[in-house]
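Can you give me the bound-state structure? Components:
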Amino acid sequence: MSEALPERAVSVWWLRWRRLQRDRAALAGGVVLLMLFALCYGAPWYQRWWGVDGIDADLLSRFDPASSTHPLGADDAGRDELAHLLLGGQTSLSIGLIGALGASLIGTLIGAVAGFFRGRVDMALMRFTDGVLALPTLPILIILAALDLSKLGFSQEFIRSGAAGYWRIVLIVTLLGWTGVARLVRAATLSLTERDFVLAARAQGASAWWILSVHILPNAISPVIVATTLAMGRVILAESALSFLGVGIQPPATSWGSMLTNAQEMIGSAPMLAIYPGAAILVTVIAINFLGDGLQTAFDPRADGH
Amino acid sequence: MIRFLLTRLAGALLTLLALSFIIFALIGLMPGDPADLLTTANPDATPADVALLRALYGVDQPILLRYWHWLEAAAHGNFGYSRMESRPVMEIVIPAIGNTVALMGTAFVVSTLIAVALGTLAAMHKGRPLDRAINLFAYAGISVPSFWLGLVLIYVFAVRLGLLPAGGMPQHDEGFGAGLAHFILPVTALVIVETGGLTRYARAAMIEVLGQDYIRTARAKGVPEGRMILRHALRNAMVPVITIIALGFGYLFSGALLIESLFAWRGMGRLILDAIMGNDYNLALVCLLFTTAMILLANIGADLAYSWLDPRISLQIGRAPKKPLRADGGRP
Amino acid sequence: MTTPLLSTRHLTVAFGGAGGLFRAGGTVRAVTDVSFALYPGEALALVGESGSGKTSLARAILGLHPHSTGEIRFRGQDTARMTASERQAMRRAVQMVFQDPFGSLDPRLPIGAVIAEPLRIHGIGNRASRADRVRELLGLVGLPADAVNRYPHQFSGGQRQRVAIARALAPGPAAIIADEPLSALDMSIQSQILNLLSDLRGRLGVSYLLISHDLAAVHHLADRVAAMYLGRIVEVAPRDALFAAPAHPYSAALLDAVPRIGTGKRIPGHALIGDMPSPMAPPPGCAFHPRCPRALARCAEEVPALIRFDADREVACHNPLVAGGA
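Here's the bound-state model for the whole set.
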């Protein structure tokens, strides 16, 4: 054989990781995100070490300015602002992550089925997708968030539980958020099914299941990862808007958005309480967008040598 | 082409129909019903009164029947009364549309101009500090929660500096300057948010165009950079941008719910929020359907614009695709 | 007369172009009324310019594309009447090597998995025996055994094509359909792969249906040659007979375009005029007549049928070249 054999196995994913490493903005975004998760979920430790409380009201400490006891001051109920911010972050970040994953799952399913089976299945699914896309997102989210579940037969206890509120938000952002991923996966599936290696598998008589799981989905996963990352940003923004309007996360649970609900009235007296949560959202979503765009460039199929 | 238009319009109509039922059903699931709202205002109401009121409003009927009644009336152009304000819905909606268009239209024009300019600048200086700065600004624009941005603007310019009003709409007795002042903060918030996304598109489109062969030819021929950008690159780069803009037209009417609420601007966005929270079926339905209809129409328009503007898209089989404009402006 | 391994009778493959947003619909017949046979152990070449329908024919045979009319037979059995397991058996026996070595291998899979895939799909052997078979195949195509864990993008075009050939050989097929296996490769690599194909044929006795527009390769590998034009077979002949004295003007023109195959006389003055017409608007009568230097009035009206010309030849022409000279 006249041609040299490559030294070691180099998978496509490894190549992409290398490309991603070169994108400093994306790496910074990823690091910031990880730090945010770590900080927010480290809130209990912070509270213990610093001896502060982000949950119980302490009316004597209301609006205390920043000090060594309260690094960011105290909020309108005397709680440590930083602790409260971190706790709220747990909610916002986790809803962002879970909501994005859920939306991706549904979107991938729908997109893969539409792109693989084509014909009428595709048309029906795409019409459905377009229909959901046509909905005015925020108003529908508001309606869904404000629904009176007792009219659907749920018990009052269930409704008032914090879990119901949390999961309801996750559910509704998933319900409206899958369309982008569906289109992406459909497009990827449509083009992949034309590729020769899929034809080769079909020529062997491979089942639809085999082709989808072995060839289509692994190859389509990269746009899905990008879309999921970016969706996380949109979910966080949506949740914060809903909570700001009072229909999202309800007290005693807290999220960055709900921390902003009272901010309007307090804007004169305690402006920083309005600044912190919004700034946290801004930093998070920027980091997500940097990371997502970096992933998109790194995963660009043209760079893989196709 | 006509077939295309008709199919799409028919599809849009179907979507609106389906949507109207969905919204109708969903609002019915919102807390309270019209009778409740009246009884909370009047604690003396007896259960008999409540039952009477319910019958009057037809709230005791099954939802399909109620929807059908609404649909029948709507088909005749009668969109009913707003429960909240006890006025015909159209009386409330029409001025709101005007208010929203004024706000969104201004923001739209300003943000488009800025985005195209910034995008072009960024593309021309690709990779260098100016590009990075513009990129950062664009990212910030798409990442910031709009209502928070509005709050910050209010704090800085209204509360601390006292330069601009914290909200509200221009009043008749205010005079031009004072009236204009009401526009500035909400439009600024909107512009910052919208420019972000549009800038990235414009930048990407411009980068692609600047990489084309005919641009390199023009450069080699010595065409000055500025003139080349303006006359040649811009036209071709605008094709994808124009489709985005066409899509944006739809949002002209839906208004920015959050910004309008924050700045007490009596536009469609605010109206929708109030109607939903106030369980005002008629108003909410009309507002939502109207805004969706506008978005659907804008989508169709964007498709048409795209296939018309991009000469590479062959609309009929067998027609040879036209080549892009030459560097000297002529066609090959 | 042995049963052909693969044969078709009056096969037509049409693509229904559905009307889109902005365009009218219309059917394209990629393959029209094609009848031919591939016998066990032989190498049949299908030649013609791009657009002649060669690839569509191959895909129809493999069942990758539905055919509109006509029969496809495998070992004499009509494929339309096969049971699922019979069809699966046919798929094992007839394998395909694709043109693009970059696109025919899944970039996510190491090539060991690529080669083993047919074995897994057909349920042949277990993990250990498949691994052995993969090693064996790698040896057959001239790749080292520890290439198993490498990924397609780490290999050159020629090496990838070897992998594709190994994959095709994995289930022990009776026939391999090679669709332009050399076109995407560099000139120097082409001869290597050609030799490999020739070598494998000698060792394993597998039949080939070689689709190619490269007449030099055809000359090296093929026993018989069929020429296709705009979806129809215009001539079928043994290799030497065709190269020495083509009967159909199109075959003559194809040979004329190739610099020196080095066999027999060349017939001058048969250069092709113009481009192949679009399959959507085929000329009436003989599809070749607008470009044919020997066209008669009859050619514009009547489609010539593929008829026996010689002991071992078929030609579809109203005015064929008499064997032996103009």
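A couple of observations. The first helix of chain C runs from residue 54 to 61. Chain C touches chain B at residues 17, 21-24, 26 (CB under 8 Å).
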